[in-house]
Structure formats: C-alpha cells, structure tokens
Design the sequence.
C-alpha cells in the first residue's frame, strides 16, 4: 500500500534531490544562530558565460586561474554558496544548510549583521541586470518552500539588499514580484522594493 508520507528531502542539511559537490569553504554557525534568511545571488564565470563547470570549480577551490583573463581578478578567493541553480533549473549544493557558507561577505539585513551566520545562500547562474530563466524560478521557488518547511525562514533578499553599494546581484533583471507570487510567504518576507 503506497504511503502518503512524502519522501525525505533533507539529511543533515543536505538536499537529497540536489547534485552534491562539497566545498571546503564553510564553517560552523554561531551556537545561537537562527537560520531565517535566504539570500539570492547571481553568478557566471566568466561574467555572462553560461554552461561549463567554472562556478563549481570556483566554489571548490579548483578553478584554473589562468583559464580566462577575468579569473585573475578573483584569484585566490575562497567562497561558497549553499546552492547553485543552473539556467536549466538543475540544482547543485556545496555546503550543508546546517553550516555557514561563505557567500554574503560584509553584510547586514533587518538588524542582523554578518548575514553568513543566519542565512542560506542561493546562486542563480546569470548576470546581474540580465533576466533569469523560467526553470530557474521554478527550482528557486520550490527550494525556498522546502527550506521554509525545514528552517525558520522569515526573509528572502538579494545580495544587493544585504550589501547595498557593494553588491548589485541579482539585479534589476530578477523579478521579485514573480517569486513572491510563487511562494506563500507574507509580503514582509521580501525586500521593500519588491512589494
């Protein structure tokens, strides 16, 4: 007899339906951290080039710095994100959501500084200011809902909102109203400009 119980999605902070590639760039969250923020980013390496495995290599410290002139500007950086959503909607995970990924940098949102401590970072394959694909919105919305069922998520913001003046992603090409309509989160969960 089939069970009505949905299959498990999470195991120790790992999303079981994502392609997993573990990054060394993470650390423990502070003991009192409340994982209540999702931060949406955009990334492509080199900028505006889609496909390939440069982003995966970057997040795992395996990028060939000499493979493209742009890579010299990020040479030696050690960063990561919890998730990465390709243009076709494929979901990758690099760091357990229970751990602290290195995606936000110097940041502040809703009175909380050091947003890496309390956030989950989701990178969209894209370029700040460019548009994103339907498949990416579908995967992003589904992931946000799954995160909200597993963690006390109260806010969804862009890198541009938590580090204004320093970061611009995901940028004006990202449709916050569309994401809001796809989720059952209250309006106050989103940046003020999106409501």
Sequence:
């Amino acid at each position: 007899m089939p069970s009505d119980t949905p299959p498990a999605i999470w195991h120790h902070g790992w999303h079981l339906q994502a392609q997993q590639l573990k990054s060394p760039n993470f650390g423990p969250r502070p003991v009192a951290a409340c994982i209540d923020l999702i931060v949406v980013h955009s990334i492509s390496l080199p900028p505006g080039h889609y496909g390939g495995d440069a982003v995966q290599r970057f997040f795992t410290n395996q990028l060939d710095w000499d493979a493209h002139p742009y890579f010299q500007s990020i040479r030696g950086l050690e960063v990561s994100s919890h998730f990465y959503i390709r243009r076709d909607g494929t979901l990758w995970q690099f760091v357990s959501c229970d751990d602290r990924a290195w995606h936000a940098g110097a940041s502040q949102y809703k009175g909380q500084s050091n947003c890496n401590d309390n956030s989950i970072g989701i990178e969209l394959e894209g370029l700040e200011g460019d548009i994103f694909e339907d498949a990416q919105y579908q995967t992003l919305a589904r992931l946000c809902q799954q995160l909200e069922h597993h963690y006390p998520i109260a806010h969804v913001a862009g890198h541009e909102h938590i580090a204004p003046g320093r970061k611009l992603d995901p940028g004006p090409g990202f449709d916050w109203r569309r994401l809001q309509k796809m989720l059952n989160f209250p309006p106050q969960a989103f940046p003020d400009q999106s409501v």
In short: The CA atoms of residues 101 and 115 lie 10 Å apart. Residues 134-150 form the longest helix (17 residues).
